Amino acid sequence: MNFLEQKILKDGVIKQGNVLKIDNFLNHQIDINIIRQIASELKRRFHDVEVNKILTIEASGIAIATMLGHLYDVPVVFAKKGQTANSTDDKYMSQAYSFTHKRMNNVFVSKPYLQPTDKVLIVDDFLADGQAALALIDIVHQAGAKVMGIGVAVEKGQQKGGRILRNDGFHVESIAIIEEMNYEEQSIRFLEQ
Amino acid sequence: MNFLEQKILKDGVIKQGNVLKIDNFLNHQIDINIIRQIASELKRRFHDVEVNKILTIEASGIAIATMLGHLYDVPVVFAKKGQTANSTDDKYMSQAYSFTHKRMNNVFVSKPYLQPTDKVLIVDDFLADGQAALALIDIVHQAGAKVMGIGVAVEKGQQKGGRILRNDGFHVESIAIIEEMNYEEQSIRFLEQ
Description:
eight-stranded mixed beta sheet, homodimer, alpha/beta
C-alpha cells in the first residue's frame, strides 16, 4: 500500500452516497508533506514524458500543481471556472458539469497562457466522472498544444472518468485508485497497481 | 527595486480603473520562480515570528501559501468562499465583499482546521481594501487562535486595507506596495520600504 492509500485509510472519512472526504489533508487543509510526496510520485510516473507546463483547475488542484511546477521548474496555469459566460475573445473555454454543485461550469484559460508548443501535464486532486479533465483536454487542444498526461491524486475507480480517458488513449496516472468503498464498514479497497 | 517590483514593471499591465493585471505570472499563469521568491521573502520578513499554520483564501492565494507551507513545513489551510449560507455548525464563517465580482461572499473554514493553539500566518496575492484579510482574521479569532502576521505579494497602497490592518496593530508585510499607477503613461510608482 502506498503513502497516499495509507493516508486515506488513516484520515479519510467515507460519507453516505459514495463520498470520500479527505479535506483534512488534501482539499481544505493541506498536509504539505503529502503534497510533496504526491508531486514527487507524479513526476516519477511521468519520467519518460517531456513537460513544459502544468495545467490544473481552481481551486483544490492548485496546491499539487504548484508543488509539481516547483519540481519540474515550469510554469503552472490554473483554469478558472464560473457560471457566467463572459466574452470569449481572449479565452479558450469549455464546460464541465459539477456534481458537487449540481451545475454546469464554464472553464476557461486566457489564450496567451497556452501555446501550440506547450507539452502539458494536467493534474488535479480527484478524478471521478472526468468532467474537469475532459474540459481541460478540450482547452489544451483548442490551443493546439499537446496533452502529455493526466496525473491525479485520487481516482474513484467506480466512476467512469478514468475509463473514458484511458480509452481515449491518454496516459493517466492516479496515485490511489478506489475500487470500492463501504459506508457502513468505513472500509476502502484500492485497486492494486 | 526588488524582484517583484521589477517583475510587475516588466510584465504587469495597467488597465483603466486602477486595475493591475498580473495574471501572467501570479493569479492565472504562475511563474514558479517568482512564487518561490515571494515565499522566501515572506519567510525572511517574518523570521522573528513563530508560525505553525498558513491560512489563505481560494483560489489565487493557494500557490503562495503552498510554497510557504513547504518552506515552513507546516499545514496550509485555504478558506473557501461561496454565496450560499450553508449550515455553520461545523464551520467558522465570516464575510468579505468582492469588488471584482460585486457581491458579498461568505468565507469559511471547517472548525477542526483551526485550533486555539495555532499561530497563523495569513497570506494572499493581493491586499487592496482588506476585505479578505479582515474575514480571515475574524475566522482565526473565532477559533481562539492567534494571527502572527499578514503577508501579501502586492499591496495597493492607494486603497485602505493596509492602513486598516496596520492601525489595528497587525504585522503586515507586502513585498511590493503600489503608491501610484498611471494608465495613460502605463507607469507605476512603488512605495520605498
